[in-house]
Amino acid sequence: MYEVCYEMGVRILIAEDNYTLRRLYLKSLENFDAEIIEADSAKETMELVSSDMFDMVICDIEMGDGMNFETIEAAAGMGIPVIAISAFENYADECLRRGATTFFSKPFPTRTLANAVRAQFEAPTG
Q: What whole-number distance in Å separates Cα of residue 55 and Cα of residue 116?
């Protein structure tokens, strides 16, 4: 599955194996000037991060076919900000240690995700 949802400014990869949550994340970002690519497995997420250029990666940590810790490291190593998401708060330290810029524990208000993305791309003032 490789789906382009919006074609405009920045490129964001959303990696989430739960279809309903992916739809919620997409809905929360619909007003952004962004091309959004979806991945529904850890393997696909790593392949996309390794082979394509993204301005941000938003990824679920524990997906049906594996964990995304290596994906966080790969993206962070390329200077790509990563928002890590998990139902397990105990993954927060590991995600941040591996290079995630932000960690959210499920469930969280979708506006929280939109605010984090907005903050990442807002030009500094002053």
A: 13
Task: Tell me the sheet residues that pair with 39.
Answer: 15
- Residue 118's φ and ψ, nearest 5 degrees, are -60, -45
CA distances from 76 to 5, 22, 36, 118 (A): 24, 22, 19, 19
Between strands 10-15 and 34-39, the pairing is parallel
Judge whether residue 86 has pLDDT over 50: yes
Residue 123 DSSP symbol: P
Q: Has this prediction a pTM greater than 0.85?
A: yes
What are 30-55's pLDDT values in tens digits? 888 889 999 999 999 999 999 878 99
d(CA 39, CA 118): 21
Alpha-carbon dihedral angle through residues 31, 40, 105, 88, given to the nearest 10 degrees: 180
Quote the mean pLDDT of the chain: 88
